[in-house]
UniProtKB/TrEMBL annotation:
Pfam families: ABC_tran (PF00005), TOBE_2 (PF08402). Belongs to the ABC transporter superfamily. Residues 4-234 form the ABC transporter domain. Keywords: ATP-binding, Nucleotide-binding, Transport. This is Sn-glycerol-3-phosphate ABC transporter ATP-binding protein UgpC. It comes from the Bacteria. GO terms for molecular function: ABC-type transporter activity; ATP binding; ATP hydrolysis activity. GO terms for biological process: carbohydrate transport. GO terms for cellular component: ATP-binding cassette (ABC) transporter complex, substrate-binding subunit-containing. Signal peptide: none annotated.
Length: 344
């Protein structure tokens, strides 16, 4: 096994630079998720680790080998794609063993490894089937099986769950997590789904516009987002950002004062939906839509021209159009500079 060290990596397509000097140090055995909105460069970064895209600057090392100029086959990695990329005319067993066959491994060794991977992934009874006779989840497992049999130093996943329906996605997410707990192979997992990143990863790299916004454990990002972008990207529903004005150590929002971080001028008061409390001295907000999910009540509101979301553990039957008073929990406030978005 091996870690992955990414140092000052740059990537351009023609004259346009799309990755602007990225640094990430992934430990041996760690599960790291790359997240960010569409076009932020996460797939490009993954493909550079895989050797599928040339690098324009910086170095990538897997273990103690700099791999910049090594072709994919010599990097000791295995990649699982969104489309699974299975051979339609080969059986599950042939798909899973193909890379070993190409590498001229012994027939008995291939059989042994394929059987072992099939066992881990509950695919044993499907080994003779063709991919078209499998469900989406089973195909996904074959794609993972193909990666496992090679026993690589690093697994690279490029949005592997995005073709599955919601229920299967959650099931496969758990399977991937169990697999990682069992094999402890260093993993880099690209997704645009922050929940997937939160639930799977040891650490998350949040990207935007070809740059890293923040790297941290899921709860570090949730509790201490470095800026307003990370604050709203991590967590669903998103953190509310209320326009405020800072002076004399206080931040004024809607005529109420909150103990702030200091400074003067425009600031954003960040509060997560679960940290809005019903209170008579709360901020007056207009109820737009109420969504009861059974386990909780999600409420969409308007406050001084801004959209606000609140989530309650209890059931509430608020009338649409009515006014409720909600107070940001003083123990869970976040403040950001309104101009730069940086945490204060
Ligand atoms: N072959 C290419 N030629 C030119 N520009 C490209 C090429 N491939 C990607 N890009 C650009 O590079 C940037 C990063 O793309 P990338 O696919 O890595 O983003 P992403 O974060 O993975 O997005 P998505 O979630 O939509 O897949 C985008 O602006 C994209 O338009």
């Amino acid at each position: 096994m091996a870690g992955v060290k990414i140092q000052d990596i740059r990537k351009s397509y023609g004259a346009t630079e799309v990755i602007h000097g990225v640094n990430v140090d992934i430990s041996d055995g760690e599960f790291v998720a790359l997240v960010g909105p569409s076009g932020c460069g996460k797939s490009t970064l993954l493909r550079m680790i895989a050797g599928l895209e040339p690098i324009n600057g910086g170095t990538i090392a897997i273990g103690d080998r700099v791999v910049n100029n090594l072709p994919p086959a010599e990097r000791d990695i295995a990649m699982v794609f969104q489309t699974y990329a299975l051979y339609p005319h080969k059986s599950v067993a042939e798909n899973m063993g193909f890379a070993l066959k190409v590498a001229k491994a012994d027939r008995s060794e291939i059989d042994r490894r394929v059987k072992e991977a099939a066992e881990i992934l509950s695919l044993t009874e499907y080994l003779d089937r063709k991919p078209r006779h499998l469900s989406g989840g089973q195909r996904q497992r074959v794609a993972m099986g193909r990666a496992i049999v090679r026993d690589p130093q690093v697994f690279l996943f490029d949005e592997p769950l995005s073709n599955l329906d919601a229920k299967l996605r959650i099931q496969m997410r758990t399977e991937i997590k169990e697999l990682h707990q069992r094999l402890k192979t260093t993993t880099v997992f690209v997704t645009h789904d922050q929940i997937e990143a939160m639930t799977l990863a040891d650490r998350i790299v949040v990207m935007q516009g070809g740059r890293i916004e923040q790297v941290g454990t899921p709860l570090e990002l949730y509790d201490n987002p470095a800026n307003a972008f990370v604050a709203t990207f991590i967590g669903a529903p998103s953190m509310n950002l209320l326009a405020g004005h800072a002076a004399g150590g206080q931040v004024q929002v809607g005529g109420r004062q909150f103990a702030g971080p200091g400074g003067a001028g425009k600031q954003l008061l960040g509060v997560r939906p679960e940290h809005l409390i019903l209170a008579d001295d709360g901020l007056p907000m207009e109820v737009k839509v109420v969504e009861p999910t059974g386990s909780e009540t999600m409420v969409f509101l308007r406050f001084e021209g801004q959209d606000v979301t609140a989530v309650f553990r209890e059931r509430h039957a608020f009338e649409s159009g009515s006014t409720v008073h909600l107070k940001p929990d003083p123990d869970h406030l976040h403040f950001f500079d309104a101009e730069t978005g940086m945490r204060l």
